[in-house]
Amino acid sequence: MTLLLETPRLLLRPQGPQDIEAIVAGLGDFEVTRFLTIVPFPYSRFHAEEWVARLRPPTLERAIFSIVLPATGEMIGMRESRGIRGLYTVTVDDAVRGARFDDAVCRATYAIDIHSGNPDANKGIANTGHKAKPFDIPLRALLPRDVTALLTAGRCISGDHFAHGSYRISGNASATGEAAGRTAGIAARSNRLPHEVKFGELRLPSLDG
Questions:
Q1: Which range is least confidently modeled, 45-59, 77-91, 121-135, 169-183?
Q2: Per-residue pLDDT tens for 141-187?
């Protein structure tokens, strides 16, 4: 089975031997590995080859992907970058109290996982003092406050740094992506803006089973 997703600007494909040089270049940078507890430094080609050799054949349910720029062949990756200011901002308080929302598109269940921001004090996972419960991400967090014809999904939705440490994983990105896609489709077909679409029109499965 070939798992491949390609757009004019990006290529998503399973990681393999063709990525060894890029893996070494990325993880051989101390500015990257100083925040990672399980990655050795210096990181060598031997380590990359060992990693690739352990990868199991990719399936729809299980695969480790590379995101590649087709124009240059460069592999890219980012843990956290810019996010929007939405109609609602998901906060660490939402994560701690296990917030529920009437317009929930996703329920995040992952722990608050933030790498230490002070490598001199701690190379590993930062102890934030917060313990997350399963919490909802509302549709409003996908809608920018100051832009009307735009939807977001995944890591760039409206949330604070600590909440992002939980909802950033790929399963939540898929769920928010589906919600954003449905909202965009309904808005386009009905000649409305995304924020004018009612949550009930999305007909998403219940998060309570």
A1: 121-135
A2: 999 999 999 999 998 999 998 999 899 888 898 899 999 999 999 99
Contact 33, 41 (CB under 8 A): yes
Range of the domain at 72: 5-76
Angle between helices 45-54 and 20-27 (to 10 degrees): 120
Q: Which sign, positive or negative, has the C-alpha torsion 170, 152, 197, 88?
A: positive
CA distances to 41, 59, 115, 209 from 52, in Å: 18, 16, 24, 38
pLDDT at 123 over 50: no
Same domain? 122 vs 175: yes
Residue 57 domain-assigned (yes or no): yes
- 97 with 186, same domain: the answer is yes
The answer to whether 151 and 194 are in contact (CB under 8 A) is yes
Identity (one letter) of the amino acid at 162?
A: F
**End residue of a domain, out of 16, 47, 76:** 76
Domains identified in the chain, total number: 2
Q: How many residues does the chain have?
A: 209
- The torsion angles phi and psi of 142, rounded to 5 degrees, stand at -95, -10
Is 50 inside a domain boundary? yes
Give tens-digit pLDDT for 88-110. Answer: 999 999 999 999 999 999 999 98
